[in-house]
Amino acid sequence: MSTADIKKTAETKMGRTIESFKGELQKIRTGRAHPGMLDQIHVDYYGSPVPLSQVAQLSLLDARTIGVQPWEKPMISKVEKAIRESDLGLNPSTTGEIIRVPMPALTEERRKDLTKVVKGLGEDSKVAVRNLRREANEHGKKLLKDKEVTEDEERRLVDDIQKLTDRTIAEIDKLVQTKETEILAV
C-alpha cells in the first residue's frame, strides 16, 4: 500500500462518514414533512420486518402532512400501528385507503432538544473522522517502519491527512449549523 492509496482510502471513508451524517440529519424532523422521515420505520409483512417504503407509497399531501398508501388493503392497520409505535411521536389517521401522518408543530423546548441531538451526531461524526485520521497515520508509520517510504513522504502523508481531516470536520460543522438554523426557524 502506497501513501497515495492511504490518502485515497482515508478520503473515501471520510466521504462515507459525511454521507452517513447527512442521512442521520434527514431523520431529524424540523416541523416540515418529508417522506424520508419514515425511512427507518419497519412494518410486519407476513412475519418479516420490511421497510415502510417497500409496502406503501409515500407522498407529501401538503407541507405538514405525509400520505402513506399501502399497496395491499390488509396492510393499512399494520402500517398505521408501525407509524404510531415508532419513536417519532407521530399520530397517523386513516381515511379510506390513505393514512395521513400530520407533523405536529415543534415546541421551543423540543427544538432545543433537537439541536442538542444534532450537535451530538456531529460530535460522533467528528470522532469517526479523527479515528480515520489516526488509522491512516498508523498505516503511514508502518510503511516508514518497513522502509517502504522515506521520512519526508511519511511527513507529507501526515500533513495531507490532517488537511483532509480539517476540511471534513469543517463540512460537518457547516452541516450542523445549517440543520440547527433549520430547526430553530419558526
TrEMBL record:
Keywords: Cytoplasm, Protein biosynthesis. Pfam families: RRF (PF01765). This is Ribosome-recycling factor. GO terms for molecular function: ribosomal large subunit binding. It is found in: Cytoplasm. GO terms for cellular component: cytosol. The gene is frr. One of its GO terms (biological process) is cytoplasmic translational termination. Its main location: cytoplasm. Residues 21-184 form the Ribosome recycling factor domain.
